[in-house]
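hi! just following up on the protien thing from before. the input was this:
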Amino acid sequence: MTEKDTFKTIIKPSEEVLFKDKNSKFFGYAFPISTEDDTKEILSTVKNYHHKARHWCYAYQIGTENFTYRVNDDGEPSNSAGMPIYKQIQSFELTNVLIVVVRYFGGIKLGVSGLINAYKTSAQMALETSRIIEKTIDVQYLISFEYEIMNTVMRIIKERNLNIVNQKLELNCEIIISIRKSEAEKVIEIFETSFKVGIKKL
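and the predicted 3d structure came back as:
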């Protein structure tokens, strides 16, 4: 069985969605993220925009192989908001995504099951309006070689359709390449059999 080397995420922020229940309004948003710092910035923007709201609940997951996730009920009863939002991220099999659901309290309590349904539905609606894409998990390698074999190295890079991240082309050349994880072994083998090419994982 081949090791999975793709992941699903969203390409841009979702449209704003609105779910209503007993006068309470739940605004849902999904955002693409790559670091925990991204979440802080987005949450701050959402809170400023909805400054009169009662709760700003969220969940996120980051990572492509080792996942980091967080859920936040923001004052709602324990596990009635953040976890139902997070379960939608899992249900859609996504990562590198943040979902925020903002609640304006309508004066009537919904009970825990009502809250779970409201937060789950708002998160689901936000993801349904999002454009979901599949990306490859890539690894980076530094290849070093002498200028005289530049053509050989460049030919391999072109043939294998490798992505050049950075390059320093002098007497001693260094190129950082990005390789799809499942292709890495084959590509390393090709470089290692070419004489005078050093390759190491970053």
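Helices lie at 36-49, 82-91, 111-128, 150-159, 184-193.
The chain has a mean pLDDT of 91.
cheers
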